[in-house]
Design brief:
This protein is mainly alpha-helical. The protein has one domain. The protein contains five helices and no strands. Helix 2 packs antiparallel against helix 3.
Length: 166
């Protein structure tokens, strides 16, 4: 029987009810989401591999539901990331467009792979490749820019200026 669950090491703490306000906290939450999405992609790829036994109808429905959940979680993550990077002034139009293109392509490929385990496996591999490249490229660049912006805003004031005012 197919069973999917996020790895316990990447789940958030229970009872977390407030949204983070500082970029450092937001970044940490976004990174945890990245980790959870990668773990779910790995789990789904393992289930769709050629070496796994044939599925029952219930298993096929469970995998389909897990893939739908992956799409949902990915879309929510991309929207939250965009919102928070925009708040830091670090979201470029190309980054936003890459998210929109990837979300559309992922949905289209998911729908096109319905009922075909090999096609679904190929879709998952392609989605994982995009996600990991995007995380290491545009996301890393935008996060570094947000880190720098935050560091500049929280840096101590110029001591020469504060001495002249005294």
């Amino acid at each position: 029987m197919v069973v999917l669950a996020a790895a316990p090491s990447v789940q958030g703490p229970p009872g977390l009810h407030r949204w983070p306000r500082a970029w450092s906290e937001r970044r940490h939450l976004l990174e945890r989401q990245h980790d959870r999405l990668e773990a779910l992609l790995a789990d789904l790829l393992a289930l769709h591999g050629p070496e796994t036994p044939a599925w029952t109808a219930v298993d096929a429905l469970a995998c389909d539901g897990a893939c739908r959940r992956l799409l949902w979680d990915l879309r929510l993550h991309l929207r939250l990331e965009e919102r928070w990077l925009q708040a830091e002034g670090c979201l470029c139009l190309g980054h936003r467009a890459a998210h929109a293109d990837a979300a559309r392509a992922a949905l289209r490929a998911f729908c096109g792979s319905a009922g075909d385990r090999q096609a679904r496996c190929a879709w998952l591999r392609d989605l994982r490749a995009w996600f990991m490249a995007h995380r290491a490229g545009p996301d890393a660049t935008a996060y570094a820019a947000a880190d720098a912006t935050t560091a500049a805003l929280t840096a101590p004031a110029d001591t020469a200026f504060s001495t002249r005012q005294s």
